[in-house]
TrEMBL record:
Gene Ontology biological process terms, A to Z: glycogen catabolic process
Highest taxon of the lineage: Bacteria
Family indicated by similarity: Belongs to the glycosyl hydrolase 13 family.
MF terms in GO: amylo-alpha-1,6-glucosidase activity
This protein's name: Glycogen debranching enzyme GlgX
InterPro entries xrefs: GH, GH13_cat_dom, Glyco_hydro_13_N, Glyco_hydro_b, Glycogen_debranch_GlgX, Ig-like_fold, Ig_E-set
Protein encoded by which gene: glgX
Keywords assigned by UniProt, alphabetized: Glycosidase, Hydrolase, Transit peptide
Record domain Glycosyl hydrolase family 13 catalytic: where: 170-580
């Protein structure tokens, strides 16, 4: 029987054909994995290639034992797909799970166990997870709930902002507003984030990137350290790929799970903001042989995970297992998952955690044309969403600049982060590399290929120091994580400006502020898509912890009192974001330059004479072109001095009726930024202060 063969009774409802465990049933929609609500019943569909039998378990809400166990008859199976419609079910009155039987041969990767309760891989909501910090009753296992799909999206369209105009702001939903200083009504939730939309609009970013919002169990590896409860706070251990993290909702959403997240996305779209999800398809919370059986292990362990020849788990993720992404079954699941989030939640893009795993073959070897990545690149439903790869993994594969892309994928540019961190703190031998990164990394993303739009430029992200800590600590301080400071990277390329950690020294604090201003000025004047970590705009700190994945406390929560304390830094970042938006020459090549300047060019203390040797610490970049939309010349000159002594800077010549005006000078003690109306005119020679950045704009002289 196929979906088209389903018999309809005159009322339009499907007709039951059998009775199982007291419920009227019939074969269901074999082409619709997961659950589907129909008039008078619910369709349940799962697949398993090696299972010999399947049971559907129905539970009353939070009950320990099922009130019904429905075994799928052989006639309710086609190929490897089990499908059954159960009539007379009220979706608000039950939870469901599965039990599968089959061969048990661990060396062959077969670990079926008919006693284990398994979560539907396509579950749209996971029960028992809605209260943050409450341990799931292991006797209950993980169960699913059927979700209504009737959200009103109104008339707001997805913004679809070009990569060249995008400014990404990475944040953790809980940590963004959990601290009392956020002063929101629903701290730590999607609703709390909605309350902060006016702040995001004031800042000027275009796109928020949410750290994992797929359902995860923050209590999975819960432990106590000096009376501090350490959790899986970041959430990079997915329990279900199709279900939102219900503990981020401010109210219970029985059978409407995800509504608050949808409200957040709708409100963002109404204000022109995009929402990107950080997605984790490289591993699951099931771990290795010692880990729990939640879902995929019990359905088809040898298909869903990369296994060694003797049945053990490859661990290219560093988290115990590795999803077998290029198996056709897993490909299909991932593609269906992303389509679901785009169609049901109107998500604007995805950042793929440890994305190089998505390009590994079933034996772990890298593939030249990974079918999953190619399918995502050309899928019509995903045609307008952003696809951003973290182009490396924990197994040593590093593909920044070489990630299989089909001119569709962008990448977190890890080389931008590393080269610019070192250059900005004054390291030698970095000027040539810094010049490449600021001008769009043409060595990684040639203009005739993907171009600079493929480069997501960043200096900070959730993983590593905040920007404040980058200039406050020489080394990591992760003792609170409980691993004797052995976790987290040692390659931070940071500089404490003379004092390790907190200080009241005004000279050190002034230097740190200038270093952060330099970083933002250069980031927002670089070709490519800028991204920065939430809180960096007002100097948020994690007290030197560069891996607070387990810290659900003020170490990770944004301290909003710093917004007022460091208001000048916030105003500078806001100014720089607006400056980037006003000057398209920074973001892209513009035609027909009136000054006969190239679109991008490098300079030194003398114009047109860049000094790219190992001893040089001064780099100037000229962006120029004619903005046809605004019918005006757009020319910006970025001057950077990372040395500890000032230098005399000669500016490029302009036509007589034009002059250079100073838009930013981080070395000016009276203030680093000027408004469009108050930019002072620069003389032909300018003093470029030590460890400072000056931005010049070409303007017509007043008549």
């Amino acid at each position: 029987m196929t979906d088209s063969d389903l018999t309809l009774v005159p009322s339009g409802h499907l007709k039951p054909l059998d009775v199982i465990c007291g419920f009227q049933v019939r074969p269901g929609f074999f082409l619709s994995p997961g659950t589907t609500v129909i008039p008078g019943g619910v369709n349940f569909t799962i697949q398993s290639q090696q299972a010999t039998s399947c049971e559907l378990l129905l539970f009353h809400r939070e009950a320990e034992k099922p009130f019904a166990v429905l075994t799928f008859p052989d006639t309710y199976r086609i190929g490897f797909v089990y499908s059954m419609i159960v009539f007379g079910l009220d979706i608000e009155e039950f939870e469901y799970a599965y039990r599968l039987d089959g061969p048990y041969d661990p060396p062959s990767g077969l670990v079926f166990d008919k006693t284990r309760i398994l979560l539907d891989p396509y579950a749209k909501a996971v029960t028992g997870q809605s209260r943050w910090g409450c341990k799931n009753d292991q006797k209950h296992g993980y169960r699913a709930r059927v979700v209504r799909s009737n959200f009103d999206w109104g008339e707001h369209r997805q913004p679809m902002i070009p990569m060249s105009d995008t400014i990404i702001y990475e944040l953790h939903v809980r940590g963004f507003t959990k601290d009392a200083s956020s002063k929101v009504k629903a701290p730590g939730t999607f609703a709390g984030l909605i309350e902060k939309i006016p702040y995001l609009l004031e800042l000027g970013i275009t796109t928020i990137e949410l750290m994992p919002v797929f359902e995860f169990d923050e209590m999975r590896d819960c432990r106590l350290l000096d009376e501090n409860e350490l959790l899986d706070y970041w959430g990079y251990n997915p329990v279900s790929f199709f279900a939102p993290n219900t503990s981020y909702a401010s109210t219970s959403e029985y059978n409407r799970e995800g509504n608050e997240l949808k409200c957040l996305i709708r409100e963002c779209h109404a204000h022109g903001l995009e929402v990107i999800f950080d997605v984790v398809f490289n591993h699951t919370a099931e771990g290795d042989e010692r880990g729990p059986y939640i879902s995929l292990k019990g359905f088809d362990n040898q298909i869903y995970y990369m296994l060694t020849p003797d049945g053990h788990y490859y661990n290219f993720s560093g988290c115990g297992n590795t999803l077998n992404c290029n198996h056709p079954v897993v490909q299909s699941m991932i593609l269906n998952c992303l389509r679901y989030w785009v169609t049901e939640y109107r998500v604007d893009g995805f950042r793929f955690d440890l994305a190089s795993i998505l390009g590994r073959n079933e034996d772990g070897s890298p593939m030249s044309r990974p079918p999953l990545l190619e399918s995502l690149a050309f899928d019509p439903i995903l045609g307008n969403v952003k696809l951003i790869a973290e182009a490396w993994d924990a197994g040593g594969l590093y593909q920044v600049g070489s990630f299989p892309s089909w001119n569709r994928w962008a990448e977190w540019n890890g080389k931008y982060r590393d080269d610019l961190r070192r250059f900005l703190k004054g390291d030698s031998y970095l000027l040539r590399a810094a010049a490449r990164r600021i001008t769009g990394s043409p060595d990684l993303y040639p203009p005739q290929g993907r171009g600079s739009n493929a480069s997501v430029n960043f200096l900070t992200c959730h993983d590593g120091f905040t920007l404040n800590d980058l200039y406050s600590y020489n080394v990591k301080h992760n003792e609170a994580n409980g691993w004797q400071n052995s976790d987290g990277t040692n390659d931070n390329y940071s500089w404490n400006c003379g004092v390790e950690g907190e200080t009241e020294d005004p000279a050190v604090l002034a230097l740190r502020k200038r270093m952060m201003e330099n970083a933002f000025a250069v980031l927002l004047c670089s070709r490519g898509t800028p991204m920065f970590l939430s809180g960096d705009e007002f100097g948020d700190t994690r007290y030197g912890n560069n891996n607070p994945y387990c810290q659900d406390n003020p170490i990770s929560w944004l301290d909003w009192t710093l917004l007022e304390k460091n208001r000048p830094l916030f105003e500078f970042v806001k100014y720089m974001i607006a400056f980037r938006k006003r000057h398209p020459a920074i973001r892209m090549d513009l035609p027909s330059d009136r000054f006969s300047f190239p679109s991008v060019s490098l300079h030194g203390v003398h114009p047109w004479q860049p000094v790219l040797n190992e001893d040089s610490h001064i780099l100037c970049v000229l962006f120029s072109g004619f903005d046809q939309e605004q019918t005006e010349q757009d020319t910006v000159y970025l001057a950077i001095n990372t040395y500890w002594e000032p230098a005399s800077l000669l500016l490029p010549d302009l036509p007589f009726e034009w002059c250079w005006q100073i838009a930013v000078n981080t070395g000016d003690p009276s203030g680093p930024a000027f408004s469009e109306d108050t930019m002072p005119e620069a003389s032909h020679t300018v003093l470029l202060g030590e460890r400072s950045v000056i931005l010049f704009v070409a303007k017509r002289r007043s008549v």
